Amino acid sequence: MNCENLDWAILDRLRAGFLGGGAQGPYWQSPADLANYDATYAERIGWKWDAALHELTRRAWHPHARTVLDWGCGSGVAGRRVLSTFGAENFDALHVWDHSPLARTFAVDRARTEFPSVAVAEFTDTGQPVGLLVVSHVLNELPTDALAQLLALVARADAVLWVEPGNHVVSRQLIGIRETLTSAFHIVAPCPHQGACGLLAAARERDWCHFFAEPPPGVQNDSHWVRFGHRAGVDLRSQAYAYLVLEKKPSASTCPNDASRILGRAEHFKGFARILSCEAAGVSSLELQKRANADLFKELKKDASHPLYRWTRDDRGRITSAERV
Ligand SMILES: C[S@@+](CC[C@H](N)C(=O)[O-])C[C@H]1O[C@@H](n2cnc3c(N)ncnc32)[C@H](O)[C@@H]1O
User: Fold this and answer.
1) Residue 189's beta-bridge partner residues?
2) Which residues 6+ apart lie within 8 Å of 16 measured at CB?
3) Burial of 121 (0-12, 13-18, 19+ CB in 10 A)
């Protein structure tokens, strides 16, 4: 990313639109809008995809479908991240859809250049199964009818990879969608169980399901990114995201029944850390005394990409031992 080449009139307008919850109708005004977005905000979204996809590869999960549909594609960063992570050779086609024709054209051109062996095209709905459906950062822009259209595609997908901003409202929306899909799909991630979401319990209204993605090494010292961060008013150190990965036919189980996932970040205090742990029995607040496991205490501070753990705890909610699973 070269900060000198950015058009700030475009970036400011786009950001104002995103913060305002999305405009009515397509807002991409020119290919330059998409190029500026692709180099900056979309790249940050790409870091969230990298984090979510890293968790899938860590669990040895990969999609079976050879066709990908990136719906609400914008510049197409999500579909491209998926192809690069799982390997372009494992896909025959990448289809993109956006209600903006400019976005569709940009996403097609960009993906064709990056993946010459894959048939990249605009999506035409023939009513056939969809393959792997990729959805990224669209929820807060969709009126009811557009969301219904998207959910009809979800119903026809073999698997769904969905990443959204990690704020309370959008995470809760995604949880609501998750709850309608548990009978038709197996949940691959982030949930370590197939039951109802524990955050829907009465005492958990203030919590939400989110995670943090770090930028690739070097970004925080890259003068172009640093200047971009200051000018755009965004903190590049970590990006909050929510995600959901579903598949129709479960792969060999990659998640043990007694696994737990830390939601958000561990909070560190003098001598102990507090975490919100999601597991089959529900979501609970747990404490880790530093002296009980100093390595884990440090690991929770350093590593934002929390893997699945198996905890042993006492009856006061204190973790007595932990292993990665
Ligand atoms: C914030 S951008 C995200 C773009 C891209 N998915 C990404 O993650 O970078 C939201 C995208 O959703 C598209 N969009 C909004 N409403 C839509 C609708 N009803 N049908 C299809 N695309 C829509 C917008 O045009 C825009 O490209």
Assistant:
1) 245
2) none
3) middle
CA-nearest of 199, 184, 200, 194 to 133 is: 184
Tokens of 13: 């307008």
Cα 99 to Cα 126: distance, rounded to the nearest angstrom = 17
**What's the domain range around 236?**
3-247
Distance CA 228, CA 8 (A): 10
Pocket test for ligand 1, best of 11, 29, 98 (most atoms within 8 A of CB): 98
CA of 222 to the centre of ligand 1 (A): 29
The angle at the Cα of 27, spanning 23 to 32, to the nearest 5 degrees, equals: 145
Query: CA 104, CA 83: separation in Å to the nearest integer?
Result: 17
143 in ligand 1 pocket by Cβ < 6 Å? Answer: no
pLDDT in tens, 22-57: 567 889 999 999 999 999 999 999 999 999 999 999
Strands (E) in the chain, as ranges, are 67-71, 93-97, 119-122, 131-136, 157-165, 186-189, 211-213, 239-247, 261-269, 272-279, 282-289, 309-313, 319-324
Could you tell me the CATH number of the domain that includes residue 109? 3.40.50.150
Is the same domain home to 139 and 286? Answer: no
The pLDDT value given to residue 187: 96
Q: What crossing angle do the helices spanning 77-86 and 101-114 adopt, rounded to 10°?
A: 20
Is residue 100 lining ligand 1, measured as CB closer than 6 Å? yes
Assess whether the C-beta atom of 260 lies below 6 angstroms from ligand 1: no
- Is residue 277 pLDDT above 70, yes or no? yes
**Claim to verify: residue 224 and residue 286 sit in the same structural domain:** no
